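Q&A log
Question type: sequence-to-structure
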Amino acid sequence: MKHALWLALASSLVIAASCLVDTRSTELSCSSETDCADGRTCVQGYCITELTPPPPDAPPCPPGCTSCDLAAMSCTITCSTPNGCSDLVCPTGFDCTISCMASSACGDVDCTQAASCTLECDGNSACGDITCGLGDCAVNCSGNNACGVVGCADACECDVSCQTASSCGTATCPAPTAGPGDCRGTGDGCDSSGANCTRTCP
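Response status: OK
Response body:
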């Protein structure tokens, strides 16, 4: 009787001990990559699933750009509400497309370091003064005093379109490349298609 009780107790202890064994740890133990199933890697004696790190965040657009393509070095700036934007600067070396589409939407616009600038000033006093650099500069002014003073004397090409007689402030246009010519457009605008006004932009 005592012998039977001892055997029963021993069996109980074996069963209890077996419950404490982590069979999953044994199944996942490894000594080399070949011990692991597909998709797992042997790290410190256990087969684990390697997590792919998330891709790095895309670098931000330059300040002021609503959107951009950094590879193409292009910047889009959109201001569609009254007083929505203050003074604007096109980032150095970028091709900028700037839309000021409401009354007093934008302040002054600085494109002096831009590769090129295309501006749409649509609304009463939509844009302040506009200063172009050496690159191509195209400005369309629609609305009463839509554009302030436009300075593009140094631009390789400059086109300033004034939709009405009161749309533009004074524009300083590039001089003809040689001989006679007039690079001024209608009203106070500029026209790069005039005689000796076409240049090769960088």
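Response note: Residues 67-172 form one domain.
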